[in-house]
Amino acid sequence: MTPEFIEIGRGLCYAGAGLAFGLGGAGSAWGIATASHAAAGVMREKPELFGRMLVMIALPGTQGFYGFIAAILMMTQTGLIGGSQLKITLGTGLALFFVGLGAGAALFISAIKQGEASAAGISLVARRPEQAGRAILFPAFVETYAVVALLATILFIVFLTSPLALQYLSR
Amino acid sequence: MIPRIKNNPRWGFVSGRISVLEGRLQPREFFLNLIAQEHLEDLVPHMQDTFLRDHISPGTVWADFSDLCDRFFYEMTLSIKEECPSSIPADLFLLGGDYLNLKSALTGSSEFPFHFGLLTQEKLLTVSHGDYADIPPALRESEAGFAGEAGEIDPAILDIILDGAYLRNLLAMADDLGSELVTAYIHDRVLSYIVIILWRALRQQQSLRHYQQYLLPLGDFNHVVTELSGMSNVDNWPPVVGGVVGDILFESLELLSESEQIPGFELRVANYLTRIARDGKIQTAGPERVFAFLAGVQVEVQNLKLVMNGRLNRIDQTLLRQRLRECYV
After folding, report:
1. Which chain B residues contact residue A57 at CB under 8 A?
2. B-interface mutation test, from A30, A48, A127, most B Cβ less than 10 A away
3. Which residues of chain A make contact with B288, given a CB cutoff of 8 A?
């Protein structure tokens, strides 16, 4: 394994980390904006409903945090933050790049769609405030898949950077 | 079939507001209850449940109820329009008053009885003084050629020319918006309007050839106008009209007495259009939501006018129930 390949592997890994938090954050911003537009329109007529809509406005924001967690984990596991630097092979770097890309894509799309689901829930609350509890369920179901994506990302990062995996991928 | 509707976050704010306002629209049972009230004064407390509650004061003159309803609808449409990324959904409802004002202007009058939409009072005054620079492009497109000598045109012909321009303008605006639902609604509304205009003209024994000459061009409907103008028997019209509007026309001709056919057709078409508009409710944010809501408010206003004016004029309750339109909610 030449040093150039190790550098490329490390670069790919951090590019994946960048995609995970970049796409997650962008999706969250988009989703929150979608929900906020609807909520602001509702508040023009019924400002007292703000409390019931707050959770639905905030829910699409979680994907940004999930992306951040994935990126931090990649950096700590590969030794960029603290600890000793691991020998990241090209194979490991490529695998981590796609893990980051997959996580980013899942978080980006789920955040946007969660924003739309929140806006739909906000429309329901506007007409029937007593349905606020049920309305939260719509975006919450979308959240499930962001959580699944985060869990899968964590498992991939942990196992890909384990000594056994690194040994296998450097063959 | 539900037309394809795409959520558009840019319309989120106004759609959120509409979500609240929709909750104030009344169902059919509300109007049936109003009709069933024994005394006229019993209707007043029920008005507090409607959008009109902010427009009704203790000194309200009930004879002006229609004006009050029209003013409410105009103000609501303008208020919604201000918050829309595109003014087209609201403009489609303001256009009718504009053309009625334009007719006054073209006949030289400086008094405009309807609320101003796209044509401001200044523009209309310019037209009434003989300067036709600001007339809508749809009016210039008339096949008969509107060169600006409105004062010399027979008022009946001017009516036809303005009807044609109004319908052209509606179709053009719906095309500009690019919404499948709005286009479907406007398409069938224009088609039904053509049928009603020609049917009324036929009943009044007017020459339909004038309509072929002055109503056109109407794009996809040119052949409908041309063919219907050549048929003096309404029973032969449904296949030419085609689609759901053609079916409604056939049903009206088959089931209703001659005097009831035109109002019955108008009512059935209005109900059909309301059913199209209801599909807009499934959208979270977008122009369809705005258009559908305004269509729903328009139906509510028409039902309120029907019930209040009907009760004021002691019209039979059964007849009022029959004339009641399907509600948006």
Report:
1. none
2. A127
3. none
Q: Which residues in chain A are contacts of B19 at CB distance < 8 A?
A: 38, 41-42, 122-124, 126-127
Compute the nearest-CA separation of B253 from chain A (Å).
40
pLDDT tens digit string along B179-211? 899 999 999 999 999 999 999 999 888 888 888
How many domains is chain A partitioned into structurally? 1
CA distance B271 to chain A (A): 24
Taking CB atoms within 8 Å and a gap of at least 24, the contacts of B111-116 are B115/B70, B115/B71, B115/B74
- The per-residue pLDDT for B144 is 66
Contact B94, B153 (CB under 8 A): no
Is residue B295 a contact partner of residue B274, using CB atoms and an 8 Å limit? yes
Closest CA to A37 of B220, B309, B87, B15: B15
List, as one string, the DSSP characters of B294-311: HHHHHHHHHHHHHHHHHH
Per-residue tokens: B322: 């029959």
Domain region containing A133? 3-169
- Which chain A residue has the Cα nearest residue B289? A123
Of B9, B13, B16, the CB nearest to A123: B16
Instruction: Give the pLDDT confidence of B119-157 residue by residue, as tens digits.
Output: 888 888 888 888 888 788 888 877 666 655 555 677 788
Distance from CA of B111 to the nearest CA of A (A): 36
Q: Model pTM?
A: 0.84
Domain holding A63: CATH number? Answer: 1.20.120.610
Residues A52-108 have pLDDT tens digits of 999 999 999 999 999 999 999 998 888 778 766 667 788 888 999 999 999 999 999
Taking Cα atoms as reference points, which of B170, B232, B162, B242 lies closest to residue B203?
B232
Choose, out of A44, A46, A112, A123, the residue to mutate when testing the contact with B (most B CBs < 10 Å): A123
CB contact under 8 A, A37 and B7: no
Average pLDDT, chain A: 88
pLDDT of A24 > 80? The answer is yes
Cβ contact B55:B71 at 8 Å: yes
